[in-house]
Amino acid sequence: MKELTKAEERVMQILWKLEKAFTREVVNEFKKDPPSYTTVATVLTVLEQKGFVKQEMIGNAKRYAPAISKTAYSEFTMNNVLGKYFEGSLSRLVSFFTERKDLDIDELEEIIQIIENKKEEK
Fold first, then answer.
1. How far apart are CA 27 and CA 98, in angstroms?
2. pLDDT at 101
C-alpha cells in the first residue's frame, strides 16, 4: 500500500463517508473551495490506478467505491508514523502526546480504561 497525497486522502475520506459516489457527488461534499470536477475526476482515476478505489459503470457515468477500508489505511498510516518517528514504539507515541498536549483527566481515564480492557481480553 502507498501513502496518499493530501488531495487523494481528502477524496478517500469523502468516499469512505459516502461508500459509493459519482464524481459530482464527491465534488459536492467539499464545503470550502471545492476543486473542479475535472480535478476530482483525475484524482479518482489515480486512486483507481493505485488500487484504492473501484468503479462501476452506471449508464455513461462511473460510480466509485473504496477498495480499501478506512481502518486498513489508518492502520497502515499509523504503522508508518510509528516506524518513522517513534522507532516502532507505541509507548513512545503515547508519551509524545501526553507530554505535548494538555490532556484532561477524562481523556487520561479513557486511555487507562482502554488499556485495562485490552489486558482483560488477553
1. 37
2. 67
The pLDDT of residue 25: 97
Three-state SS string over 15-26 comes to HHHHCCEEHHHH
SS (H, E, C) 41-58: HHHHHHHHHCCCEEEEEE
Q: How many CB atoms neighbour CB 11 within 10 A? A: 28
Query: 43: closest CA among 71, 6, 76, 18?
Result: 6
67: nearest Cα among 24, 4, 20:
20
Q: Indicate the angle between helix axes 6-18 and 37-49, nearest 10 degrees.
A: 90
Say if residues 71 and 61 touch (Cβ distance below 8 Å): no
pLDDT digits (tens, 9 = 90+) for 67-85: 999 999 999 998 898 899 9
Beta partners for 55?
Answer: 64
Q: Is 66 helix (H, G, I), strand (E, B) or coil?
A: strand
Can you tell me which residue has the cell 462501476?
Answer: 56
